[in-house]
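Project channel, design review

CF: Before we commit to the Littorina saxatilis constructs, I'd like one complete example in the thread so the newer folks can see what an input/output pair looks like. Taking Transposase.
RD: sounds good, go ahead.
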Amino acid sequence: MPPRRKLNEFERERAVAWFQDGVPKREVARRLQVSISVIVRLVQRFPATGRVQERRRPGRPKKTTPREDRLIERLALQTRTASSSIIRRQLRVATNTNISQQTIRNRLHEFSLRSRRPAVRPRFNPAHRPARRAFCRRHVRWTRQQWSQVLFSDESRFTLNHNDDRLRVWRRQGERCIDATVQEKVAFGGGSVMVWGAFSLHHRTPLFHVQGNLTGLRYRDEILRPLAVPTLQQMGPQAVYQDDNARPHRARVVNDFLQQSGVNRMEWPACSPDLNPIENLWDELDRKVRGNHPPPPPRDVQHLYQELQAEWQAEWQALPQRIFTTLVNSMRTRCVECQNSQGGYTHY
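CF: and here is what came back for Transposase:
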């Protein structure tokens, strides 16, 4: 919520003059861009006091001046990762003002700045942004019908036991380390499994468990030939296959096979998971499976996967159609947002 704007003396006099001229209070508030309650209190106070100045407020006065407040905001915006202690030290060097770290945080809160976890995104090299911008420029005018002909695919690695910072616990003071409020951490996430899947607006392939390293030959023989190509044939001659630039996907045997099979393949910019809607689908699938099962104890990864494999398949097939419709329809917005950021990051 933005900080409440205070009227200066000239604006208060103007507000009283407008009100005396018959301008409604709501219109006065709109002209000055303040809450109507500010104008109501002002016009109620003026007949009693005959002045527009605010009454002297009780309480402790601020230890910083408006100039120092603006400096605190500027220091935080110049270095977004600077802690309150660093900003406090920089302010003391610049103005010889010694205030607490909590005061620094209070001033930043007044400017609507909050400490948050940074968004995690791939690192771009100089070639990535132009490639992303070019891709979005080519596809930003695609219709929903055109996007409905794209089969989006990807692999995802599911860690069987991890803390994704979504877990919260209810606890009282002094209960931080009791068993009921501790999230146990298992080395390397307790193991992981990799699955492959693909979907379009009206089609979805079965999930495929990728065991071991995925090579170009395995990608062709175990995924493309039995799963992806038949689905593309069901979609019709206008179907387009999308996969990323992982090394197995761009192997020569894979390129030759797709060309011989007559598959239309979409050119995909590197480091662009935010443009691929299947990433959101993996997150939804992970939430559903974890919602049905507590984190498993450390055991054999293969045994755990066999226990969860049927449920992953069932949850994948049970994902409602509205999710697929929403994700496919979001492609135009993704392209617009990426193009507006000059090929930079999007919120997806």
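RD: helpful, thanks. Residues 10 and 52 are 9 Å apart (CA to CA).
CF: Residues 66-110 form one domain.
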